From TrEMBL, chains A, B, C, D:
UniProt xrefs under InterPro entries: Gfo/Idh/MocA-like_OxRdtase_N (IPR000683), GFO_IDH_MocA-like_dom (IPR055170), NAD(P)-bd_dom_sf (IPR036291)
One Pfam family named in its UniProt record: GFO_IDH_MocA
GO CC, one annotated term: cytoplasm
Record keyword NADP present: no
Designated name of the protein: Gfo/Idh/MocA-like oxidoreductase N-terminal domain-containing protein
Keyword Methyltransferase: no
GFO/IDH/MocA-like oxidoreductase domain span: 141-262
UniProt similarity note: Belongs to the Gfo/Idh/MocA family.
One GO term (biological process): NADPH regeneration
Gene Ontology MF term list: nucleotide binding; oxidoreductase activity
Keywords from the UniProt entry: Oxidoreductase
Gfo/Idh/MocA-like oxidoreductase N-terminal domain segment(s): 5-120
Lineage: Eukaryota, Fungi, Dikarya, Ascomycota, Pezizomycotina
């Protein structure tokens, strides 16, 4: 039987879910190994009945894992700071790679990986932009880009608003994420570039506020931010990122064109249940991205595997992530400096003098 | 002629609202009198500043009120048992009449009023079926009957579900209302006959249950009921009546045709506000028919006045109410006897032998 | 690795989907065989690349398939008329069985299978009532039965309204299904018994109409029907079945209690996309049950497999289906005869004399 | 009878509607005069049957109208450029004034009127911010400001998106309106100051695009714009203004706080009707602000009249408009210059050197 032998690196919240997706919803994948250097994750994995059932080998050393005979592909779900080095190492060992977004918060480091990947034309190297695999976003893309249902699209509003995390998990995770726009708006920017056909940025500005996570002050981060991106040619996108929603994972996108508007998930719903009682009519909201996007992750996994098995192009190349990060960083700079970030008509950032944007 | 001089008889919850509608939203009406024989309503009216401001005269005697010089029209909003006699008396004095539904719970008494009205061709005599004046039901009628948006309509689902009344008001009011189908399904049946183009009933059956108002047992009534009406020619309607909703006034209608379905108010909403909080996303529901239909009452009042001022046909003739009551009574009989009520192809009720449906 | 070796019998629309679910979303199942005696299904399966990839053996003889070494379980997805015999044969060979609803349109035949199953206490024999595995219906059950969110539930409204099938597929399929209430309301009745805690039926009545499928007249069937079931103790359910919806698969359920109402899927939605254009705001509707319930089928498959692997009780025993069918048949009789079907307080059908309900 | 004698100045689209509101829904108002100097409006008014019926006198000279004996109040609904002078003239003649927003596009001129009004303490002088009278926005205010339903509010998203006008009416009207943020975001800014308790602006930026109305280029205007306002103390608002929606008047506001979010009109609906057909499920959207806010205008009129009759403070003082305009102009400047507009901690605009923002 023809299945791709794959390993998942990183067993945090998301890594565990990728293993689950690969086992439960990706029949052409065969999870043969997982890897983590975190003691509590190692302990958790050692006791996992399902991993035993399916014979998944546990590693605490990434390089050793790459040596496992038969291993064909690696799904990198570690913290952002090792994405680039792990991708490079995997490619060097001839493994296909799906690396979670972003490849790096450092644009130059990311570019060096992209350049290196060109040296491995036989490998499938894919950026993990999961929303591109969601049925609703895809339906929106068909309507916008193929059917012309809204005429010429010129404006995107997109928000990624997370449920307030009161467990401390988020704060621990947030310290190395590059700032709210880099961490949180990245999918919104990706969708924007998709629906606006790779529009070229011209200027952007953003502001933020710190409402519930005072710990973020130390890393100069905020927990809510709003930004606008103006593109050359009269297109506009604006974003809202939040870590502090009371009601759940409220992630929506609207694309306006000359003849109409497409909304995706304007009213988030946990399921189809509505309770009518003295308070009125209430529906629950998904607590986090997993409930909203678990099927998208399944599609992503299957398409990655399919690209390997049938030597197809990957659905989301690494270059996509680079364009997204360029804008995310510009928004982040605007938030930090208070000044407008600008780009030339080729989409190249016009840098201010160092004294003007001297953010550490 | 500048304005129609009109009196409202009955100052219960609804009568007061009709006075309000006539003052606030019916510029061509001039409320010159109100009438009630209920001491607490008399007291309330005597102290009403607005009535003083607008010079509205208060009567405790209906016949005396009819003698007021210049009075042109009467809006009858008393209890059902005097609707017929008050309508007859008003016509005899040459007054136009808008009588709340139903004209009578006794089909023969109602018919005698209808017959009598033919003797006053110059008077406008109108049945108060307020939903016919609601913007949404009218839009549905346009789509169904004029635009053919759903092809040939053949099925109606309609419900009138009231908020549980815990004040005792309802119980007091309910004793003389003729049973739940007669009191509560009458608008649903009216809408059915409208959208199904006066379909002829063939058979009907219904059941009920008593959940929250044990006092209704004395009058053999229930507080929730469901009924089906089969019409000749393959059309069907089914209804749900409730007095016990926890969340508000939940009144919806769906009409299915060969090419589509029209829903009216499937999700009731108090206003446009949604609260998202830990519980999820919540909107409030109108507590009662007034919040849902206050604009319909204004349209009704204006069209009644307009019919008088410009000698137009009334928008809802008394005969409409009679067709509705025939079905309501048949459903009520089915609920009381457990047997199917049947009609011949002319829509005439086929009576069972007295021993079979010996309900008091 | 510990997986259940399973075969799927019947490769019609649904059978193919069950194979898909078992391959793609049921990691502890191993589909080792499929079986059909339909030439076009055999041909289709012979050319199926996925079946080859996963080494699934194709049979045209059910008995031979049962002989396959290692086979542990059978998923019966054939036409209703062979459900009973195939279930009996599988049990006789020591195979676990998941049999699609209904076990039989003949109540006595179904009972004989249930009785026979008692002779195989080691086998898992399960009724395929897929809605019991849907996340929304389960959430509703938790809210109603565990949390008491609506107080005491006493009324169910449930509809199964299918998209009009213009391909001829439905007509071919419909001839042996036992009538619209038996084929189409069976899930609604199942949900009712779930949410009303196995309420005992007292009386029921229903009517139908034939709007779009004149071919059904030959089998005395209709394409739209409405029915009411009254239960002992003041509970009520009412149903709408349709084969002729223009807009999609519109399947909703509402449960009303003394303190509130739970709605499931009152507004059906294909996905989270809304298009706003000159016509207004539009969302698409699932075309059929598969888009609505494909995750429920996955849960069903995993729980069946789990019951086998860990020797747990099956989530939906065969007896459940029998209670459902008793009511479905009573509604069907009412539709055919025009008379009320009645039950005694033990839920046993009170038969009318043969001359009264002389339906062939 | 005690009614306020009122005149309406300006019989454009809105002026006519104000007359309608005063006649049909404001029983304590008595429209005694209207005034316009536009020939086609004069002609229209001369032929208006309703105006004749209610004895409304028509003027083409504002000063003459102010001389009409008994006139107590003036509703100014002319073009913005004469709002200030007409307000001053009315006050000088001792008339109460309701002036449509904005009082002036020139902040200093507006301030001079506000200062002058202090010389007439006996007159009611009110700014026409109609959304403050809408039932939903009021309900939101109660929930946010009184009930604390969302904790501490810190973010507002608000949009005023109009249906594309293809009649040429808008273009004619737009030439003197001060730019899209001044004309179109003014209500959104007003709501923001309401819900954020008169937060003090710190910085703002905005961008625009011209998609459908090339005629606007001549006045340096755009037909879609997005802007962000940062307030001192960590509050943020962001706005979308559009003249080019395909589907209708799509005006919504969301207020986020530490414990929840309030949405107003996130899904605009013409009425309660939904059509389900082959395309899916569709509801219509209000074509313009009138269908959305006609009841708000009635409340506004009644409260203005009530303030006069009972000598109460006006519900929206002129000063409110001034705070709103300060922000609107700053956004407009940002759009025109591409630079961030900034304010000091007292909310006073920090001007850039003339060479930097040399917009004509």
């Amino acid at each position: 039987m023809d299945r791709v032998q794959i390993a998942v690196v990183g067993l945090g919240r998301m890594g565990k879910r990728h293993v689950h997706t690969l086992i439960h919803r990706t029949p052409r994948a065969h999870v043969v190994a997982v890897c983590t250097n975190q003691p509590h994750e190692i302990e958790w994995a050692q006791q996992n009945e399902e991993y035993k059932t399916f014979g998944i080998k546990l590693y605490d050393d990434y390089d050793k894992m790459l040596e496992q005979p038969g291993l064909q592909a690696v799904w990198i779900s570690t913290s952002t700071d090792v994405h680039s080095s792990q991708t490079l190492a995997a490619m060097a060992k001839g493994k296909h790679v799906l690396c979670e977004k972003p490849l790096s918060t450092d644009l130059e480091e990311a570019q060096s990986v992209i350049d290196a990947a060109k040296g491995y034309p036989g490998l499938k190297v894919m950026a993990g932009f999961s929303r591109r695999f969601d049925a609703s976003y895809r339906d929106a893309a068909v309507k916008i880009l193929q059917e012309g249902a809204i005429g010429s699209p010129f404006m995107v509003r997109s928000q990624t608003c997370d449920l307030l995390d009161t467990t401390g998990f988020f704060i621990k995770y947030a310290t190395r994420n590059g700032g709210i726009f880099v961490d949180c708006a990245i999918h919104d920017i990706d969708l924007t570039l998709w629906y606006l056909s790779d529009a070229v940025p011209k200027a952007c500005w953003g502001v933020g506020t710190l409402q519930q996570h005072p710990e973020l002050k130390a890393s100069n981060d905020v927990d809510n931010a709003v930004g606008i991106v103006e593109f050359w040619g009269g297109k506009i996108a604006y974003f809202h990122c939040s870590r502090t929603q009371a009601h759940g994972h409220d992630v929506s996108t609207e694309v306006t064109g000359t003849d109409g508007k497409i909304s995706v998930n304007l009213v988030p719903r946990m399921n189809n249940v509505v309770l009518a009682d003295k308070r009125g009519m209430t529906h629950e909201v998904q607590p986090e991205y997993w409930q909203r996007f678990e099927m998208a992750f399944a599609t992503e996994a299957n398409e990655f595997v399919d690209a390997i098995l049938h030597n197809k192009p990957v659905p989301v190349p690494m270059e996509t992530g680079q364009k997204v990060m360029l804008i995310a960083r510009a928004l982040q700079d605007a938030l930090w400096t208070g000044e407008v970030s600008r780009f030339d008509e080729a989409g190249k950032r016009i840098e201010k003098a160092a004294t003007e944007n001297g953010h550490a």
